[in-house]
Design brief:
GO terms for molecular function: 2-oxobutyrate synthase activity; pyruvate synthase activity; thiamine pyrophosphate binding. It contains 11 helices and 8 strands. The protein has a single domain, classed as Rossmann fold (3-Layer(aba) Sandwich). Helix content is about 35%, strand content about 15%.
Length: about 325
């Protein structure tokens, strides 16, 4: 069973200790760095971080320096889930034979390229085998480290260097991959979405996820905006991130033992009348500067459909079938 978790109610309930040091080379308003900083504050020092290639790795491990204040291993794009599985199994074995007497937790912190695409097979294997690992996806919605190429996490119509916007091709032509539904299909104990604009919610979800690791893996999908990749000024990062949830573009919810729970404030935004204008969110970013009003209506329809899908899942979760 999951351990009892003390949830934070304010910033005073979050440690002032820093496990990710200043002096890294990330952009001033990097969503990925803020994600890692908050995750480590929630997890504490007794962790091992597995980090595949990506923005977070190249900005925090410039040889011969490191910004990490906890044990850290850099791995290839495609194998974070496999490496984390091996570390978790080794810790379990060492505890079993008595040579280790501490329950060090294993965290993966990976970007969308290493999760949606290149690392998906290893992630799926880790989830299916039931390793007690917390996998945190920081989603900046493209391969930002190598020059803003599209990934499976890039949203529809967004302009990238590999999917430019013109009169024929309107940026990325496919919808963003629904990674949470893929993860939920593995029936792991806990999965959740979070947003750097809602740090208390993010910290609490990390704490809850860690409490489930004795039952199996956990997964947290964090929206981590990238100012240069999305096309907005640094000081607007939190504002843009908050709009993502307030418009329904990135809802906050949990998958808790096969029950879907829509979290505040997203529960309120199930009512379309209460959402902020998607146009306000889209037009604040240059990656969508070419998008027409008609195309924005199409994006709104996609959001409506997805939120209705989540609502149906939440209403049906935990309700036994009459034919059981």
């Amino acid at each position: 069973m999951a351990m009892k978790v003390k949830l934070a109610k304010s910033f005073f309930d979050i440690t002032r200790e820093e496990y990710l040091a200043p002096g890294h080379t990330a952009c001033p308003a990097c969503g990925a760095l803020l994600t890692a900083r908050l995750v480590l504050k929630a997890a504490g020092p007794d962790v091992i971080v597995v980090n595949p290639t990506g923005c977070l790795e190249v900005t925090t491990t410039i040889y011969p320096y490191t910004a990490w204040g906890v044990p850290y291993i850099h791995v290839a794009f495609e194998n974070a889930g496999a490496v984390a599985s091996g570390i978790e199994a080794a810790i379990k074995s060492l505890n079993k034979n008595g040579s280790l007497k501490r329950n060090t937790k294993v965290l993966v912190i990976a970007g969308d390229g290493g999760t949606y695409d290149i690392g998906l097979q290893a992630l799926s294997g880790m989830l299916e085998r039931g390793h007690g690992v917390l996998y945190v996806l920081y989603d900046n919605e493209a391969y930002m480290n190598t020059g803003i190429q599209r990934s499976g996490g890039t949203p529809k119509f967004a302009r990238t260097t590999t999917m430019p916007a013109g009169t024929v091709i309107r940026g990325k032509i496919e919808k963003k991959k629904d990674i949470m539904s893929i993860v939920m299909a593995h029936h792991i104990p806990y999965a959740a979405t979070a947003n750097v604009a809602f740090p208390i919610d993010l910290v609490n979800k990390v704490r809850k996820a860690l409490s489930y690791l004795n039952e199996g893996p956990a997964f947290i999908h964090v929206l981590a905006p990238c100012p240069p990749g999305w096309g907005f000024s640094d000081e607007k990062m939190i504002e843009i991130a908050r709009l993502a949830t307030e418009t329904g573009y990135f809802p906050l919810y949990e998958w808790d033992r096969d029950r879907l729970i829509i979290n505040p404030p997203s529960d309120m935004y199930m009512d379309k009348r209460l959402r902020k204008s998607l146009r306000e969110f889209v037009k604040a970013q240059s990656r969508w500067s070419h998008v027409t009003d008609e195309e924005i209506k199409g994006l709104e329809k996609d959001i409506d459909d997805f939120l209705n899908y989540l609502w149906r899942l939440s209403m049906g979760s935990g309700v036994p079938t009459p034919y059981a």
